[in-house]
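Dear colleague,

Thank you for sharing your sequence with our group. We've completed the structure prediction you requested, and as agreed, I am returning the results in plain text so they can be pasted directly into your records. Please verify that the sequence below matches your submission; if there's any discrepancy, let me know and we will rerun it promptly.
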Amino acid sequence: MNNSYNKEEIEKDVRTRPETHLSTPSIGRIYLHMTEVAFEIAHEFVDLRINKINKEAGTFWSVIRNLFRTVDYQHFVDRTHTIKDKLNKLRNEIEHAPSDKDSAEEDFAVALQEYVRALSRATDILLSKTDFLARKARSAKAPRTSYAEFQAIIKDEWASLQECQKTGDRLTELNRSAGENNGTHHGQ
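Please find the predicted structure tokens below.
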């Protein structure tokens, strides 16, 4: 079998972009991958906040159910810390990503940073909330466990969730556009 390319030519072809990439905005794979990671973390956040915490501790029926068993609030704190650690790692990766971006990739990177920042703020609030619940579960008279303090912890929760939605919608739109643009260049 006679190949018209040798190994060095193939490697050169893999390293260089086709000329069409220069004229059409595209988003590097690293940013698309980081976006997927951000959305996976967001799903973990939503699962913890809605499916675990609210169902375990936040509804009338959960209160009745919990009369017969103990809710592990420390588990919620630990899971929230895990989400926060993943977000911090992702923020670091975004900050240290290659900087030779075109304007479309720069817009995408900014949108990704804004989304991760919003998700991080929402996670900080969730961490404060879960920590409060864990302290309250250990002792009803624990310091900083009054209802007024709980209200102060969650007063900005709704606004932070709306910011996550807004920045997530923007990132999703850019991600779809990037997929369409990148798909046309790769024959997808």
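Summary note from our side: The chain has a mean pLDDT of 76.

Kind regards,
the structure core
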